[in-house]
What does this fold into?
Amino acid sequence: MAAEELTLSSHIQHHLTNAKMCSTDAGLAFNKACADSGFWTWHVDTLAWSIGLGLIFLWIFRSAAKKSTTGVPGKFQCFIEMIVEFVGDNVRDTYHGNSKLIAPLALTIFVWVFLMNLMDLIPVDFLPAFAGFVGETAFGMDSHDVYMKIVPTTDINMTAALAIGVLILMIGYSIRIKGIGGFIAELTLHPFSSNNKVAMIFLIPCNLLLETIALVAKPFSLALRLFGNLYAGEMIFILIGAIGLMQLPLHFIWAVFHILVIVLQAFVFMMLTIVYLSMASAKDSH
Amino acid sequence: MELVEGLKLIAVALLIGFGAIGTAIGFGNMGGKFLEACARQPELAPSLQVKMFILAGLIDAVAMIGVGIAMFMLFAL
It folds into this structure.
C-alpha cells in the first residue's frame, strides 16, 4: 500500500504539502522530485484553485449583471446587489480620492478572498482523497504521492501575491497623484523636517528609514495576517480530525467560529486595501 | 536532536502564549469601551460595531502571524 509508514505526523505533513511542479534536467517534474529545484517551483494546486475560484466569481457576477432588471429584482439579483452595495458604501465612506478603480478592486478582493477562504470549510480529507483516487485509477500513482491543498490562501505565495499587487497599486497611485518628486519628498521629508539645510542632511536618512519600513510593513502585514489566520484554522481542522469520534462536536464548534474568521479576514483585507489606497491618493497628507 | 525538538516545542509555546496575552488584553479593553459607548449612545451601536470588527482584525493580526509561524515550525520544520 503506502511506501512510507502511515503515522499521524506523516498524515498531517501530507495535508500540509502543496503540489509542486518544476523544470529539472529531466524535463517537467512534480512533487518529491522538486525538492532541490529552488525558486521556480510552481504550486500548481494553489494556482489552479485560485484561478478557478476567480473565474467562478466572475461568472456569478457577470450573469447577475446581464440578467439584472430595473423592475422588481429576484432573489439572486438582490443578493448580488447587497454585496455590491455593502462594498460600495465602505468605499464611499473610506476612500477620499477620485478613482473609478477602487470600488471594483475592493469588490474583487472581498469576494475572491472570501471564496478562497470558504474552501477551508470543506472537510479536510474530501477533495484530496478524491484527487488521490483519481491519481490511482487514472494515472496509476500511489494515492499517498498525490498532494493537493484546496485552500489557496493557506499558501503564503498566494497572500503575498495579493499583497504585492496592493503595494504596486499604492506606489502607482502615489506617483500618479503626487508625481515622482512628490512621492520621494513624502518618503524623505516626513516626519522630521526643518528649514536648516544641514539638519536636513542628517534627517533625510532617518525619514527614509522610517517611511520605508512603514511602506513595506503594510503589504507585509496584509499577507501574513491572512496567511496566519487561514493556516492556523486549517491546521486546527486537521488536528481535530485526527482524534477519533470526538471530532464531530469539536469540528462543528470550530467550523462555526471559522465562518466568522473567513468573512472577517476577507473584510479586513478589503478595508485595509481601501485605506492604504486612500492614504496613497491623498494630495496633502501629514 | 532531542534538544532541538525540545527547544522547538518551547519556542512554539512562547510564540502562541505571548500572542494570546496581548490579544486578550487588547480585545478586553476594546470590547469594554465599545460596550460603554453603546450604553451612552445606543444609536451609534451599528456603526461602532463595524469599526470594532475592523479593529478586531487588526488586533488579531500579529498574534495570528505568531500562531501561523508556530504551527508551521511545529509541523513543517
In short: Chain B has one domain: 2-76. The domain at 2-76 of chain B is CATH 1.20.20.10 (F1FO ATP Synthase). The mean pLDDT of chain B is 90.
